[in-house]
Amino acid sequence: MAYVITDACISCGACAAECPVEAISEGDGKYVIDPEKCIDCGNCAGLCPMGAPQPE
Ligand code: SF4
Ligand code: SF4
Predict the structure, then answer these.
(1) Are 4 and 53 in contact (CB under 8 A)?
(2) In this predicted structure, what is the pLDDT of residue 35?
(3) Which whole number is the average pLDDT over 27-32?
């Protein structure tokens, strides 16, 4: 399991700074999560102002 960032993302970058395993990077129009790195901690979902990261 990994979290995925939906199209609600406004590319603020807040989640990338708080991911403990640096799984989040800036993508094309939104941020993206590397499913190979994500440990499902939920930090990104908890801090995102848009509710963009969702458990897959
Ligand atoms: S915190 Fe939310 S809106 Fe900001 S970059 Fe991450 S997913 Fe996108
Ligand atoms: S759920 Fe945790 S490990 Fe996965 S991308 Fe979000 S902050 Fe990083």
Answers:
(1) yes
(2) 97
(3) 96
Give the number of the ligand closest to the Cα of residue 23.
Answer: 2
Question: How far out from the chain centre does Cα 42 lie?
Answer: 9
CATH number of the domain to which 51 belongs: 3.30.70.20
Chain centroid, CA 15 distance in Å? 6
42-51 per-position pLDDT tens digit: 999 999 999 9
Q: Phi and psi of 46, rounded to 5°?
A: -70, -30
Expressed as residue numbers, the domain containing 19 is: 3-55
- Cβ(12) – ligand 2 distance below 6 Å: no
